[in-house]
Amino acid sequence: MTETITIRRPDDWHVHLRDGAMLKAVLPFTAAQFSRAIIMPNLVPPVTTTAMADAYRERIMAALPAGSRFQPLMTLYMTDDTDPADVVSGYESGRIVAVKLYPQHATTNSHFGVTDIEKIHPVLAAMEKAGVPLLIHGEVTRPEVDIFDREAVFIETVLDPLVRRFPGLKVTLEHVTTKEGVEYVTGARERVAATITPHHLIFNRNAIFQGGIRPHYYCLPIAKREEHRLALRKAATSGNPRFFLGTDTAPHARAAKEAACGCAGLFVAPVALACYAQVFEEEGALDKFEAFASLNGPRHYGLPVNEGTITLVRRPRAVAEDVSLPAGEAVHVFRGGETVSWTVADADSAAAAVA
Ligand SMILES: NC(=O)N[C@@H](CC(=O)O)C(=O)O
Ligand SMILES: [Zn+2]
Ligand SMILES: [Zn+2]
After folding, report:
1. Is 355 helix (H, G, I), strand (E, B) or coil?
2. Distance, CA 177 to ligand 2 centroid (Å)?
3. 197-206 pLDDT per residue, tens
4. By the 8 A CB rule, do 325 and 269 touch?
5. ipTM of this predicted complex?
6. How far is the C-alpha of 323 from the C-alpha of 183, rounded, in Å?
7. Which residues surround ligand 3, an ion (CB under 5 A)?
8. Considering every ligand atom, which ligand is closest to the CA of 42?
9. Catalytic residue at 248?
10. In which band, very low, low, confident or very high, does the pLDDT at 354 lie, cut at 50, 70 and 90?
């Protein structure tokens, strides 16, 4: 049995760090495991300009544990009014790495999202020309479309037309959750890729309703049927460079999830690498783990791979239920109260012990 896994240092290509006290509480977990992360811009108000991204980056740097070398990769939140000139200059000066498209009302803090793709055609054309990646939350929000079909319908009616209309645009289908998504990305033109979360590899939609309604399994896109989970596991562990690691760690205070109208999003950062490693081990694909975690993402984004390595050891550890926030609040940790098999042995920040 494999006892240690050593891979080139990984990155997380989809992270919600929030702001203020929450940022301070959750950032160490990401920084302990990942060299870089794409920081999602869905704050309230959202990060819509390069100047706002600069300010957010400063707040992240100030919240980092001492000695951490973690690098946040900033993004802009696309609105109907996004300025193509700001996007291109922000990208070319290295202050942002991508723009995120949230269809309006698709997910947490998406009320400022794009109302009609036609409206952003000029900015997409500018991004295509300048090489700026477009990151997409791929779900339609029309009320007549079933929540479990939102991704598949999005791919057919929005994503595929967009990918054809802008044939040079670099596109990441974020947190893919369906076999339709996997098939689409596998067969799409060059420069189309997808992130896969740990949680969508681990549970199917039954978990949301196991013996009662379970808010700590509610995220968007919502978990799908077992056949979709199996398709995701196959894609992630295939070695196909179009699929790579993006945890979609999305912390919410317990009170905001355990509510009559609970927020979507799971705080997976504390167990992210452990969960992925478990999946690759179960699939007999540990030899493909490094490509998924550390190589395929940089390749898609045209960035260098990280220097150095990270080692996971087989050392079962109990996962804490919660991470505390000031004022008595807490964030439930995905798999909190359970035992995970893999532990990061040599991370380079203060949070190493918890990761
Ligand atoms: N994944 C989620 O369920 N929630 C995310 C938003 C998102 O990535 O869609 C959040 O910001 O809380
Ligand atoms: Zn999303
Ligand atoms: Zn997300």
Report:
1. coil
2. 11
3. 999 999 999 9
4. no
5. 0.99
6. 37
7. 248
8. 1
9. yes
10. very low
- Shortest-distance atom of ligand 1 to CA 218: 3
Show the CA angle centred on residue 175, arms to residues 169 and 181, nearest 5°: 70
Q: To the nearest whole percent, how much of the chain has pLDDT over 90?
A: 93
Binding residues: 14, 16-18, 42, 100, 137, 175, 220, 248, 252, 264
Q: Would you call 117 exposed, middle or buried from its count of C-beta atoms within 10 A (0-12, 13-18, 19+)? A: middle
Residue owning the nearest CA to atom 9 of ligand 1: 107
66 phi and psi angles, rounded to 5 deg: -55, 135
Contact 105, 122 (CB under 8 A): no
**What are the tens digits of pLDDT across the range 24-43?**
999 999 999 999 999 999 99
Residue ranges of domains in the chain, CATH in brackets: 4-353 (3.20.20.140)
User: Among residues 146, 248, 287, 348, which one is catalytic?
Assistant: 248
Three-class DSSP category at 147 = helix
Using alpha carbons, select from 54, 40, 30, 10 the residue that is nearest to residue 271.
Answer: 30
* pLDDT surpassing 80 at residue 348: no
Distance 248 CA to ligand 3 centre (A): 4
Q: Kindly state the tokens that stand for 344.
A: 């990061």
- Please give the model's pTM, rounded to 2 decimal places: 0.97
pLDDT tens readout for residues 61-76 = 999 999 999 999 999 9
The 10s digit of each residue's pLDDT in 316-339 is 999 999 999 999 999 999 999 999
C-alpha 15 – ligand 3 centre gap (Å)? 6
